[in-house]
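General statements about sequence and structure are easier to judge against a single worked case. For one protein, we set the task of working out the structure tokens from the amino acid sequence alone. This step matters because it turns folding into a mapping between discrete strings. The amino acid sequence and the backbone structure tokens for this protein are reproduced below.
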Amino acid sequence: MSTFARVTGEGPLRVVLVGAGNMGRAWMRVLGESPDVALVGLVDLDTDLARRAAVEHGLDVAVGPALAEVAAASSAQAVIDVTVPPAHHAVNTEALFLGLPVLCEKPIAPTVAETLSLIAAEEVSGQLLMTSQSRRYYPQLARLKAAAATLGDIGFVTTEFFKAPHFGGFRDEMEHPLLVDMAIHAFDVARYLLEADPVSVDCRTFNPAWSWYRGDAAASATFVFAGGTRFTYTGSWCSPGLETSWNGSWRVSGARGSATWDGEGEPRVEYADAFDSEASVVPDSRSEIAGALDEFVEALRTGATPSGDVHSNVYSLAMVEAAVRSAAEERTVLLADVLEDAYAKALSNESRDDVRASLNAWGSAAERLAPAPATA
């Protein structure tokens, strides 16, 4: 659990949006619908693009290429980072040390090593850094989690993901387009459902003969979680016909019964004949990035640690790196090894003395990321 500064005072949270491209425009719409926030600034290296976006959305806000200047001019209280992933580490770090909490689009950084650097930056700055792991935020998924809690010991969680998108561009050239660009959503949801972190993974990837991707567009991965639960992910980004939803198709199998979710509708649950139960009622909430925004604002107002805090989210990114390593080396990979290798890289690559000192004080990634002991 992290400790961070709360944002006090009356009125909506004043936010600066960094990135005015397609995703930035999506965020502008969501921000405009929320009474809890006020968009007061736009930052983009292409200032003409940012100004056009502001005009299109009827915004009278500070616009510029530099975060520090726009934040100061607009009296910002928080930052939403919607830049391209390679820019996330730099933008997030700058914002934190300007004294501004950050909600960042996924991935919070391209690598586990950079994410560990951001954890230390959050700790040194005392500001919240949260990722918008947007596919956590569905009322139906929350109800699946509530149903799973009634199933007793969980033995298996499975998800199948089969889509056939023709993106073009960088995804077509990636070595592992499915694992690196999409699977993190399912990996993160598995952690959310189980409220646990994985210990190891065995993953294999391949590219069907008809695939239009250069790299492996299909994968099968089995994670072993603390406690022994198995999570199996099977997916393909070149499987036309009978496609799953973008959230995939889920099944949770426990000692008392099973629950399923098609990724769109309501979950289904069926219990063993000798057992009957009822999941707790979960109220509706906003979905996807709107849900992430709501949790971010609530965290800043109350001090409650959000589920997407960088300390927790690093495990979802580590699942991706571990799966890629397992596929490349054709062996089972321990998540602890991935984290420790990343910790060594983070120490070696860190450019800020204060962040490096914080990292060095950890001793190891395992020591710093271990959950706090339970208190009576």
The chain has two domains: 1-137+287-309+333-376, 139-271. The longest strand covers residues 154-162. DSSP finds 13 helices and 14 strands in the chain. The longest helix spans residues 310-329.
